[in-house]
Amino acid sequence: MKWLRSRWFKTIMLSILGMIIALVSYGLLQLIEPVSLAPITKSSQSIKFAGRALLVASDADMVATAYADGKLERVAGVEDTLTVIGLQNALNSTNIQTLRVSNSVMSWPQIIAVSPNGQRAYVVEVRRRPNNNIQAFASIDQMPDGQQLTVVDIADLNQPKVLESIAIGRNPEHVSISPDGRFLAVNLEEPGRELVIIQLQEDGHLGKRWFFPMSVDNSQSGNGAAIWHPSGKYIAMTQDSDSRVGFYKVDINSSGDISILPYSEPLTVGNHLSNARFTTDGRFLLVPDLKWRTWGIRAFNFLLNPKGEMIAIRFEPESGKLPEVVSRVEVGLSPEGFALSSDNKLIATVNMRRTYFSPNLPPAWRGKHYSSLSLVKFNSQSGKLETIDEYGFEGLLPEQATFDAEGKSLAVVIFNYRESFPKTGAVEFWNVINSNKPRLERTGLKLNVVRGAHDIVLVP
Questions:
Q1: Do you know which InterPro entries this protein is assigned to (predicted)?
Q2: Which of 58, 84, 320, 438 could staple 450 via S-S, CB 3.0–4.6 A?
Q3: For residue 18, which phi and psi values (nearest 5 degrees)?
Q4: What is the pLDDT of residue 78?
Q5: pLDDT at residue 134 tops 70
Q6: What pLDDT is attached to residue 1?
């Protein structure tokens, strides 16, 4: 037939063949693992972690791969937990205390806040525990709504205790405490009440509340994670759905009532932002971009996501200048959480990569089998970021890390390992070697905690 010999037919067929070859080639590339496991190094530097305690939140209601297949693999008797690890003595299990505190991984890793005096911890529930007979959901989004904010007394690390647990609104997702310890900022999934500011009483209990609408362009999905500025006069909020960051002025009148007003138009920053944090002097806001909305198709977003980024935004309201992005660097796949050293010179992003994939589908894929850390240098004067190296390690769905008070060690939480019906997660410890080219050393020291470890906070 003549059309078989036509130029257009040949062009179309060659184009289709080219697309097939490109897709197959890209798929084969995903079988190549460019990140190697970091070796365990016997260092001359002893394993110490400066600070008073570590607080670890564990969501026992699901395993890491439930995001992919909806299978929770719940284990009877293993429940949501807040783990308190005392740091006064050697790092071992004898310094660990646990409390039943409802919490969930279904938010960014910013669900614990600690009072400036280190006496109280505040934990938001996010989603609540499913009924006992439920072992799977068609989608993990069917997890029941949460409501609770739990106040924990950690004055005595050997006997932490729950002071109160109070319903504050639908799906409280993130919590941040003001620098003076007087207020909490909590994000909610409630139309017209997306942000609640809670006054804290002197004994740590919850007091008066103010609710604020924080929708973006009339979209309720724009509400992300709020974080207080070190001055206490501003709040920044990531707006993950539209990849922007909003900055807001916090005013307190003579009667003690609070108002929240936009400082500027939201700043377009990236593709899919996690939770942010300010530098100590408040001049920069740091935020990871996971790039989970690159393709517009859910399966492709998590199967073919590119490497993430670390982004620095200058924020100097006293200068009268608008916020602006001053630096961005490439880090590992899916950098959901990050740690900032106390001197603000080093950042460690926690890259879960693609460890959320279920055991069998896909059978092999780049980033499925282990996670990584990216070490980044930060210039606190200019805001410039510089990626130094990436370090692989075992474990699924790590979401957060923290440096110790001296910036010499790093602790990373691991949700669970790739096994059926896991009971434990872990905190893994790394040494920070400071030199002209800083690096991380994997010590091999791990402390087991209840499975589902997803947020960690240092009590200095």
A1: Haem_d1_sf, Host-pathogen_enzymatic-act, WD40/YVTN_repeat-like_dom_sf
A2: 58
A3: -60, -40
A4: 98
A5: yes
A6: 47
* Tokens found for residue 101: 């505190």
Cα distance between residue 24 and residue 14, in whole Å: 15
* CA atoms 414, 417, 422, 426: torsion sign: negative
The pLDDT of residue 88 is 87
The answer to whether 403 and 375 are in contact (CB under 8 A) is no
Q: What is the pLDDT of residue 105?
A: 98
Fold of 49-459: Methylamine Dehydrogenase; Chain H (2.130.10)
Q: Which residues, other chains included, contact 383 with Cβ-Cβ below 8 Å and sequence gap of 6+?
A: 283, 284, 312, 314, 326, 327
Among residues 339, 340, 338, 365, which one has the least CA distance to residue 353? 365
Full-model pTM: 0.92
pLDDT higher than threshold 80 for residue 27 = no
